[in-house]
Specification:
The chain has helices at about 10-30, 45-55. It has about 55 residues and is mostly helical. The protein has one domain (about 10-55). Helix 1 crosses helix 2 (about 45-55). The longest helix is centred in the middle third of the chain and has 17 residues, at about 10-30. The chain is globular, with a radius of gyration of 12 Å.
């Protein structure tokens, strides 16, 4: 659910696509395997996507 109480759905394919896009951005900013990152977000969907982006970067 999002902050307004609405159900927010995302397929695994959508998650992978968004996380891969964000991982590319993290790599472009200089993130490399073994680097540490802080994820500061209140929304569960964003947290999961950013977590996977870090895994993929």
């Amino acid at each position: 659910m999002d902050e307004q109480g609405e159900i927010d759905r995302q397929t695994y394919a959508e998650l992978l696509n968004e996380a891969t896009r964000l991982a590319g951005g993290l790599q472009a900013l200089g993130m490399r395997p073994g680097d540490k990152a802080i994820i500061a977000t209140r929304q569960n969907r964003e947290t999961i996507t950013l977590l996977w982006a870090c895994f993929l970067a």
